[in-house]
Specification:
The chain has about 425 residues and is α/β, with parallel strands linked by helices. It folds into three domains: about 30-200, Rossmann fold, CATH 3.40.50.300; about 205-295, no CATH class; about 300-415, Arc Repressor Mutant, subunit A (Orthogonal Bundle), CATH 1.10.10.10. The chain has 21 helices and seven strands. The chain has helices spanning about 5-20, 20-25, 35-45, 65-75, 90, 95-110, 120-135, 150, 155-165, 190-195, 210-220, 230-245, 245-260, 260-275, 285-295, 300-305, 310-325, 330-345, 355-365, 390-400, 405-415, and strands at about 50-55, 80-90, 140-145, 175-180, 200, 370, 385-390. The strands form two sheets. A five-stranded parallel beta sheet has the order 2-3-4-1-5, with helices on both faces. Strands 6-7 form a two-stranded antiparallel ribbon. The longest helix is centred in the N-terminal third of the chain and has 17 residues, at about 120-135. It comes from Vigna radiata var. radiata. Keywords: ATP-binding, DNA replication, DNA-binding, Nucleotide-binding, Nucleus. GO terms for molecular function: ATP binding; ATP hydrolysis activity; DNA replication origin binding.
């Protein structure tokens, strides 16, 4: 096999790992949420007992990913002893639609005819009957309730019916609630809470140390026949050196300060792997820096790219007024500064007041500037005080990135900066 093939294969292997939740979350550490969740559900299956568990944590922390890995593992281990019913609070928070969806999925699972005309009570009784039959057949029904807190609104009839049916010794079910609200169990009514098992798993964003371990786990190539031994060893050494490098840690910390969730960390890693140099076949510090700069969204700079020359002039005028300790200004004061700047630099372009007013209103629409209060709503736009919503550094960077920006505007910002 040619060296180029190994380099391409390395990129493909790393990408497939990043996109594979099983590789990322399937670890056998006793303290991991994967191990805890798998133990609780498998115990319910093997011991024929009921259970209810809440998976809590911010979005992107891996709740759904870990649950899916656990369910897939259990379906392989107990293919004839598990059926999964999935509901989402964004779609099924209404009790009627929730019971109808449960009945539909149960009918599909057990190859029964589903009746769309069935009433709420019919579907509720059907669910209880199926749970009883599954219990007698030693089959566990797993209910996955995403956005669990939305089911805890209103009369909570779905939750009460589910948990109450699980009190019977003949039923065999597990209710798994997934929520971003850490106080989701406190939203439950007393009658529902008394039937809940109060088992909770907390998913937290990874720390700096955990993030480094995860990166090493994903990026380390196997030392076996699939890659040349020397190449894999050197690749792993370079990855280890990058992760331990102080500059890389600073870049990673900046990214984690923006969003420390596993989901966004994997996105960052995928982007870094995609920028791997195929000539050398190794990841470098630059790969991660490019990934950081490409992922980091800068909406203000994106808006600046779509601004006209006149709008850039208005923004620079407002920034100059800020430097002159006039952070609050209105359209009339901006026009005075605009005229002063035109007279100083003798520019060829000078727009009429009406054209400038339309550009000023467009900047308000883009939210590059904003009215400082609502008390002057009856006043004309020209007289209402406004303030900039963009920093000097962002404006300076935006002007430099703008291809057709007049050179004197950049010089002005250099002088003010």
């Amino acid at each position: 096999m040619e060296p180029e093939n190994h380099k391409t294969k390395a990129v493909n292997v790393l990408r497939s790992r990043i996109c594979d939740p099983k590789f990322i979350f399937n670890n056998d550490y006793p303290d991991s949420n994967y191990s805890k969740l798998k133990f609780m559900i498998s115990s319910s299956v093997t011991e024929a007992c009921n259970n209810s568990i809440l998976l809590l944590g911010p979005r992107g922390s891996g709740k759904n990913a870990v649950l899916e890995v656990v369910i897939q593992d259990l379906l392989q281990e107990y293919p004839d002893s598990i059926s999964v019913i999935r509901l989402n609070g964004l779609l099924h928070s209404d009790d009627v639609s929730a019971f109808k969806e449960i009945a539909r999925q149960l009918c599909m699972e057990h190859q029964l005819l589903f009746s769309k005309a069935a009433s709420f009570d019919d579907n509720s009784q059907f669910m209880v009957a199926i749970l009883r039959e599954c219990g007698l057949a030693h089959k566990t029904v797993i209910f996955v309730l995403e956005e669990f807190d939305l089911f805890a609104q209103g009369k909570q009839r779905l939750l009460y019916s589910l948990l109450d049916a699980m009190q019977s010794i003949t039923s065999q079910a597990v209710v798994l609630g997934i929520s971003c609200r850490l106080d989701a169990d406190q939203l439950l009514e007393k009658r529902v809470r008394s039937r809940f098992s109060h088992r909770k798993l907390l998913f937290l964003p990874p720390s700096m140390e955990d993030s480094q371990k995860l990166l090493m786990h994903i990026l380390k190539l196997p030392i076996d026949s699939s890659f040349p031994h020397d190449y894999a060893t050197e690749f792993n050494t370079k990855v280890q050196n990058i992760i331990e490098d102080r500059k890389f840690k600073e870049t990673l910390q900046k990214y984690l300060n923006v969003d420390s969730s596993v989901k966004h960390l994997l996105r960052f890693l995928f982007c870094a792997v995609s920028h791997m140099d195929l000539q050398t076949g190794f990841l470098s510090q630059e790969s991660f820096e490019i990934a950081f700069s490409s992922i980091q969204r800068q909406p203000k700079l994106e808006c600046l790219r779509n601004c006209s020359n006149l709008e850039l002039h208005i923004l620079v005028c407002m920034k100059r007024l800020e430097v002159k300790e006039k952070s609050l200004c209105n359209f009339n004061s901006v026009m005075k500064e605009y005229k002063s700047m035109h007279d100083s630099f003798r520019t060829s372009e000078y727009y009429s007041r009406n054209v400038c007013l339309r550009a000023f209103e467009h900047l308000l629409h883009l939210e590059m500037i904003y009215f400082t209060d609502n008390r002057g709503q009856n006043l004309s736009v020209e007289f209402r005080p406004v303030k900039l919503l963009i920093s000097s550094a962002e404006l300076h960077q935006g002007l430099r990135a703008y291809n057709s920006c007049p050179a004197y505007l950049i010089k002005l910002m250099d002088r003010e900066g």
